[in-house]
Amino acid sequence: MSDCLFCKIIAGEIPSRKVYEDDACLAFYDIDPQAPTHFLVIPKVHIPSVAAVDQENAGAVAHIFTVIAKLCRELGLDSYRVVSNIGEQAGQSVPHLHFHVLSGRDMTWPPG
Ligand code: 5GP
Ligand code: ZN
Predict the structure, then answer these.
(1) Residue 108 Cα, ligand 2 centroid: separation in angstroms?
(2) Nearest to 51 by CA among 4, 101, 10, 90
(3) Mean confidence (pLDDT) of the chain
(4) In the chain, pLDDT over 70 holds for what percent of residues?
(5) Confidence of residue 92 (pLDDT cuts 50, 70, 90)
(6) Which atom of ligand 1 lies closest to the CA of 28?
(7) 33 lines ligand 1 (CB under 6 A)
(8) Secondary structure of residue 67 in the 3-state scheme
(9) What letter does residue 66 receive in the DSSP assignment?
(10) What is the per-residue pLDDT across 7-54, written as a single tens digit (0 to 9) for each?
(11) Which of 30, 39, 83, 102 should be mutated for ligand 1, with most atoms under 8 A from CB?
């Protein structure tokens, strides 16, 4: 999608601090980190949010979770939180599916 911020990051039109990239996904550090380690993992195909996941695109989501597990192992993270906000009330500010990976500090439950 031409006017999507994360599609522009995927295209290299907006710079990012890359953690990992393959044919299907990109992981990059959040510009406004909420924990000592905070990166985002996004599919290269434009999916608006978890609410738009279906049988057709679910493979991209499954792949992202294998990448999260692998990256966290490689980064030595043994405790972390994976979050995806869906819709305005839940705090979604970028309408391109993304999973936040947060680690390195104590976290509370329930989230705010
Ligand atoms: P959301 O609020 O939709 O759950 O998450 C969007 C995230 O994208 C936020 O944590 C925000 O800091 C991050 N973000 C917004 N714009 C940029 C950007 O240009 N570069 C990077 N690396 N992160 C961004
Ligand atoms: Zn997009």
Answers:
(1) 30
(2) 90
(3) 97
(4) 100
(5) very high
(6) 22
(7) no
(8) helix
(9) H
(10) 999 999 999 999 999 999 999 999 999 999 999 999 999 999 999 999
(11) 30
9 and 26 Cβ atoms separated by less than 8 Å: yes
Contact 28, 9 (CB under 8 A): yes
Q: Output the CA torsion sign for 9, 13, 14, 17.
A: positive
> For residue 57, what are the CA distances in angstroms to 42, 49, 54, 77?
13, 11, 6, 28
Q: Catalytic residue at 46?
A: no
Ligand found nearest the CA of 31: 1
Ligand 2 centroid – CA 75 distance (Å): 27
Q: Which ligand has the minimum distance to the alpha carbon of residue 3?
A: 2
